[in-house]
Amino acid sequence: YMFFEGRWQRLAEAKLQGGGKIAEADFSSVPRNLAVLRVVAQTYQVAASLPRDGTLHTDARVDILSPRDYSPAGDGSVQGSATKVPAGGKFLLMPTIIGSSQDTASAVDDILKDSQRRAKHVEAIASLVQTGGFDGVDIEYSAVNADLNSQFTDFIKGLADSLHRGG
Fold this sequence. Notes:
Blueprint: E1 2-4, E2 7-9, E3 15-17, E4 22-24, E5 47-50, E6 64-67, E7 70-72, E8 78-80, E9 92-93, E10 96-98, H1 102-113, H2 115-132, E11 138-140, H3 149-165
Parallel strand pairs: 5-6, 6-9, 10-11
Antiparallel strand pairs: 1-2, 3-4, 7-8
Helix pairs in contact: 1-2, 2-3
């Protein structure tokens, strides 16, 4: 393709070589500019949210499984227990911590308002991920008080740092 008169125009069929890193084509003259378009298959991931104590259908082909098993407590701890999921599944297991209902949203706000509770919450989530052997965690805190947005950002940054340190 050559960009000419404000649009890309096809010039010739190209043959890819070298694992798609080299393109070969014939031109009657050397173009002023040139781009090679290579169409490749896209990789998609399917994420599934599983209700607490739900089961995954045997035909489900998910890449990320997030059982909705946990909720935050106002003191910074995490409540709940893991749903049994198929052993040896070929998916990332990232449980959801739900803080979006009326009572859990107020617990999230209480945690965010206090730096010690935030630190305790980060520690509780990191411990949950580590001891549960999870691949990560899904945070559903969609009802955070807008006045606490910087505290929420600090919480997420602290959690990310802690989880990355833990591998």
